[in-house]
Amino acid sequence: MRISPHHLFTTEITFTLILFLLKDTVIAQQEGASVSSGSNVGGKSYNCDPNTCQVSKDCLCASKNPPNNLLPQDTPQFVTITFDDSVQPTLIETAYDLLNVTFASMQYTDFSLVQEWYSAGHEVADHTFTHVGNPSESEITSCRTMLNSYSGIPNGKIQGFRAPFLNFTSSTLNSLKKLGFTYDSSASAIPDDAYWPYTLDHGMANNCWSGICDIQIPGLWEIPMYAVPDATGIPQLMDVYMAGSPEDVSKWSTAAFDNHYNGGRQPFGIYIHPTHLTAYPGLPDPKPKLDGLISFIKSIASKQDVWFVTNQQLLQWMKNPVKVSELKDQDYLKCQQPVINKEICNGLDDNGNGQIDEELTNNCNFGATTFKTCFNCPGTAPTLDNPTPASSVQNGTAGYRYPIPDNCDTQWWDPVQNTCLCTSSDCQYKDTALPFSTTGSGGKDGSESSASVSSIAQSTAYIALATSMYAWL
Ligand SMILES: *[C@@H]1O[C@H](CO)[C@@H](O)[C@H](O)[C@H]1NC(C)=O
Ligand SMILES: *[C@@H]1O[C@H](CO)[C@@H](O)[C@H](O)[C@H]1NC(C)=O
Ligand SMILES: *[C@@H]1O[C@H](CO)[C@@H](O)[C@H](O)[C@H]1NC(C)=O
Ligand SMILES: [Zn+2]
């Protein structure tokens, strides 16, 4: 699969097809399709003093206004696109055909596809091992451990979490803090509480109806999920395109976006279960919904000062908010791909022959279940309690794959040679950024700053690992 910058937004959308949720027919279980409103039932009201809670002390109060007293017109309009659930191979093959997809039931996420996703510049986040509500700590750690071991994502780059079914408790959030996560993104923001991301030092300012607002978790960020109210005012959260005709959905989404854009410039989110936009025999053709979503994304992307970012990029900006005119100078917002002149197993087409990691990935087979990885296959099938069973190939023998160390990033790690191909600051990168709109310059040459638009189309995937179809049907 090629990632072509010339298809910036097509690429984004086709990525919807590679992450996969096997429960689209089980509407009752849909993750947070619409959200409850009402506030502070059973919780004290949110109280946070911005004079003492400051970003320099890893604290930020919930607010509808931009951080650092930035004026809205100087503030970037960030948009995050997130994809939930597992990653399956039949979907990636047809990503560029958008809808020509065959249904395959596989138990595990395909780890080499996750690695491709990450290496292309997107973020990978934790969504538990077996996709359960109110997850235990081992559900959270097993997912992270497997993403590290089989997709080669450095532990420090797996910073985010979303609870399956958006079902979390204070114990979930306390676990995240204890396990060293940077943020949660499971809370719902109806327009009344559409706050910028904030830390949980002084409680949660969203989801108070669930009685969770009294928590105090210093330094853990919440990136609320921003709802789109439908025609009757009901907030729709994930898969808004499932709630009405493409025309209606586009109208609601545009109105919700404009509220942020013309208001406090709070980030706007598009939360997708790719399976809903994927064609399956016997189900209605999702193409009109997909087309509607693409045209909505194009319409907001063509507005000035709109940037599509990952949650991690958003938080980097929150910690050091700069004016939109300075965004293109921020290193963490650059679209860079490493230049490596031989094919290594890193999720990229390093030698430019149109194939990614050819003849380098391992096929791990466990009866009905298979997955590909650049790393060692486990000797037995992973389980919740033993997510990374020992490999039968030993260190130092032929075929052994070396695990990624925390001081090398995935794109540069050669697991066969046990080498990090970037160990200094002069590593070669190529810039893959392109301006989207003709009304402004993108990040690439930065020749003009009066009309800046996003050149960034990065997004975050929340990955649950063992979402077999049987779990949902
Ligand atoms: C779908 O994919 C199959 C197998 O790759 C191919 O034979 C078929 O022509 C494709 N159909 C469309 C509509 O592209
Ligand atoms: C949350 O998940 C737990 C564990 O799966 C379940 O018992 C509970 O009913 C769920 N709560 C909601 C509100 O769905
Ligand atoms: C592999 O073996 C070498 C030599 O015994 C050792 O230094 C190294 O730490 C081992 N690496 C792993 C990943 O086990
Ligand atoms: Zn999910």
Automatic annotation (TrEMBL):
Keywords recorded for this protein, A-Z: Signal
Signal peptide stretch: 1-28
Biological processes per GO annotation: carbohydrate metabolic process
Protein name, UniProt field: NodB homology domain-containing protein
Domain NodB homology: 75-183
InterPro entries listed in its UniProt record: CE4, Glyco_hydro/deAcase_b/a-brl, NODB_dom
GO MF annotations, alphabetized: hydrolase activity, acting on carbon-nitrogen (but not peptide) bonds
